[in-house]
Amino acid sequence: MNRKYFGTDGVRGVYGGPVINEEFTARLGFAAVTWLRGAGERRHDLVGAKAGTDEHRRASGVGRVLIGRDTRASGAALEAAMARGLRAAGATPVSLGVLPTPAVALAVKSTGARLGVVITASHNPAADNGIKFFGSRGVKLTDRDELAIEGYLGAPVSAPVLPLENLPRATADYIARAGALLPPQSLTGWRIVVDTANGATCTTTPAVLRGFGAEVIGIGEAPDGHNINAGVGSEHPESLAARVRAEGARLGIAHDGDGDRCILCDERGGVLDGDEILTLLATHALAKGRLARNTLVITQQSNLGVDAAITAAGGRVVRSPVGDRYVVERMLAEGANLGGESSGHIICTDASTTGDGLVAALKILEVMLASGQPLSQLRLVLRKFPQQCAALRVAEKRPLESLRELAAAIRAIEGELGAGGRVLVRYSGTEAKLRLLVEGPTDAIVGAAIARLQGALARDGMLV
User: Fold this and answer.
1) 387-459 in CATH: which number?
2) Which strand ranges, in their side-by-side order, compose the sheet holding 128-134?
3) Among 117, 295, 318, 395, which residue has the fewest nearby CB atoms (within 10 Å)?
4) What is the third-level CATH fold of 11-168?
């Protein structure tokens, strides 16, 4: 499936560029509603009905589409453009304002909306923005759905800018849902540092934790439209670790700009990534008989140590392609209730339909409360294989099989590692980058292998 605009997590790019701009966003909204009618179903009803007219809206028969966004300065303009496209195609756009991506998913499912739109570039810098869609069940659209939407992209949309209907209770509903996941006042006496990345979780995560009685110390909590993810958040946990140590906190929690990721920091300042969070949650659930089908779903990117830990605990690991929506698809196919990515996308389907950084943090807090152990002790359940990654900028995404030097290097390294390691090479779904991952028996062997792969790519003329 060769999609032109959609990547692993929606459409993304620099605001004002060839894709992420008001004109394209309106077209995309119009195309999404056209697809929503059912891949051309009832198209004959629309013949002769001018876009944006009452006749067009009656023919299309599409209800409310919810729009949420993060704190980027470009978000409001893109929201207005998306609303124009949705309205021109016959939908009723409803603004949720600034709130986390999982809160949009919850609102779509709980209100019976036909579609949800999130305007965000997640962990990317403020100059970027993006668009991702959720279906009526609160689950991201499939590759096939996105390809179909692209097929309906047409001419620029001509429609007036009208005031948007609002759904102000969406944030309160999300806070209330999360606020029911732990016993009342169960975090009384806990000091927690929370890094909200100057993004969409600045209000929600601190409110929920304080609701449980915790003392919350915030960083990355002053969004100005231009500082989202800027040296803070899940991509930059160094400040979180330092603040946890300085404050004597029980743990630290970091999100990305739209709140679907969670990275943690133990009381000693040690950072836990998604693999450690998933392993901790899965082994605890296995011990309690709560891991559905005894199965954890992770991606190809996750460390081989996860497989070893889950197998030792009596569970089973299934891997999916990289991307949290692929994890969700595999979870549904396997009947699993826990899955995620090393990047910090954690999906707990008993509490959320998509990656939810707040839910992941609360689930870890639940384990800490039940065990009485600090996070520095609990994390020892995972012993990672030595691993090294690299993300290399490329001028174009040539087919990997056409890169002869790289292919030869991969074959040689895999032959040397055998069952004691692995090599993973893939293009980023959201950036012009090639990602390398090597795992092996020692750091020295892994580092040398990464250097060999980079050398091979240079000889293939791939690096810029």
Assistant:
1) 3.30.310.50
2) 11-14, 128-134, 115-119, 64-69, 92-98, 165-166
3) 395
4) Alpha-D-Glucose-1,6-Bisphosphate; Chain A, domain 3 (3.40.120)
